[in-house]
Specification:
Layout: E1 19-20, E2 23-24, H1 28-31, E3 41-43, E4 53-54, H2 62-74, E5 77-84, E6 87-93, E7 102-104, H3 108-122, H4 132-135, H5 149-153, H6 171-179, H7 184-189, H8 191-194, H9 215-228, H10 232-244, E8 250-252, E9 266-269, H11 270-283, H12 289-297, E10 302-303, E11 317-320, E12 325-328, E13 334-339, E14 343-348, E15 355-361, H13 367-378
Parallel strand pairs: 4-6
Antiparallel strand pairs: 1-2, 3-8, 5-6, 5-15, 7-9, 8-9, 10-11, 11-12, 12-13, 13-14, 14-15
Helix pairs in contact: 2-13, 3-9, 3-10, 3-12, 10-11
């Protein structure tokens, strides 16, 4: 099996994720894989697929559209879409990608996981205060087991950073993953993954320190499966894929035991990524439990301390919500799902502003221009 079929998000399995020079890279053989091994789950279209509207840009919107076209032509972009609510104002794809391509979201899948967690909370299957060990006895007595759902959503479990690049598996474990022999529950239960990280003077406690790593969303997927009594793929299909109105099939990466690769692992056609973006925005305006949760998810819950030079991950983001990046240095009042190599969904968080930007890319070295496009789009009428 090709490595291209397995990578799971920003700096997933060391040393597997590719670079183009110093830039995170997602070559086509990673980004556009249409089929996986037999044990992956095939996403089913929703029983009630949602229609996306289309319209031509207004005179005031043409500048942003021209900027999007220029970026697609001159950067390593594979697709750029400008949305106004459920209406596509501009959408363009670069070959070899096309409308039937299955785009890998990389760590944009973390944001999908955040929505599935919120649905479990609002179905009274789970609480933000639930500790991981309450549902995963495999973590009892381990530092990771003391982390709450809220801590995990904030990337603040306090657990160790096994690799400098956010990965949790060793190179040998990654090879076993490729062969279909690695169990994700066993992986996060290992002492080297589940032990406490140390600051200069003491061990970190859950909730006190932002540390972007695969451990936290992987643990969330396992917690949700235990809480709901369902394999991750079934809960994700029922709680996110069906409600968002997916119109096409796709893929969810999982191990043979149906433990989901919930730090990434979501592959959908471009139009269904747009439906996901629109659904999240729509839910953020609703009243009730899930609307409240989505608004919290898109708001800063923990600081990504430092500045562009000193931040380890999310260099242009000052904050983090629930598996969503916030406080963009370039585009104020936005929230972003972010994936390795330049996969992005950007939402305006201004009241009454339904603008969204969606990009897929082969390299990540032009993302400041994506955020500049988002800033312009959000303020264009």
């Amino acid at each position: 099996m090709a490595i291209a079929m397995i990578g799971c998000g920003p700096a997933s399995a060391q040393p597997s994720n590719p670079y183009a020079g110093d830039a995170a890279s997602a070559p086509d053989e990673w980004l556009l894989v249409k089929r996986g091994p037999a044990w992956w789950y095939e996403i089913k279209p929703s029983p009630n697929p949602v229609a996306l509207q289309q319209r031509a840009p207004t005179a005031g919107e043409r500048s942003a559209v021209e900027r999007a076209r220029a970026l697609l032509a001159t950067r390593a972009a594979k697709a750029i879409v400008l949305l106004d609510g459920d209406t596509v104002v501009h959408s363009e794809i670069k070959a070899p990608a096309d409308a039937d391509s299955v785009f890998y979201g990389f760590s944009m899948g973390k944001t999908v996981t955040a929505m599935a967690v919120g649905k479990a909370i609002c179905a009274d299957k789970l609480k933000l205060a639930t500790k991981a060990a309450d549902l995963l006895p495999e973590l009892k007595g381990k530092a990771l087991g003391e982390a709450t759902v809220r801590d995990l959503l904030q990337m603040a479990s306090g657990a160790a950073e096994p690799n400098a690049d956010s990965a949790v598996w060793t190179p040998e474990q990654f090879r076993e993953w490729q062969r279909g022999n690695l169990n994700l529950l066993s992986l996060v239960s290992e002492d080297r993954v589940s032990k406490a990280a140390r600051s200069l003077f003491s061990e970190y406690k859950p909730g006190e320190h932002f540390s972007y790593k695969s451990t936290d969303p992987l643990t969330l997927g396992l917690v949700v499966s235990r809480a709901t009594g369902m394999p991750w793929n079934q809960w994700l299909q029922q709680s996110v894929i069906d409600p968002m109105g997916a119109a096409k099939s796709g893929l969810l990466v999982q191990d043979r035991a149906q433990n989901g690769l919930s730090d990434g692992g979501v592959r959908m056609r471009l139009e269904d990524w747009l439906r996901f973006a629109v659904w999240v925005k729509r839910q953020s305006k609703e009243t009730g439990c899930f609307g409240d949760y989505v608004r919290a998810a898109m708001s800063t819950q923990i600081s990504n301390a430092g500045n562009t030079a000193s931040r380890k991950f999310g260099k242009l983001f000052g904050g983090y919500g629930y598996l969503i990046w916030t406080e963009n240095d370039v585009a104020p009042k936005t929230a972003w799902a972010s994936g390795w190599g330049g996969q992005r969904i950007g939402w305006s968080t201004e009241r009454g502003n339904d603008r969204m930007v969606v990009t897929f890319s082969n390299t990540e070295n032009w993302m400041q221009e994506v955020y500049e496009l988002g800033r312009e789009w959000n303020h264009t009428r």
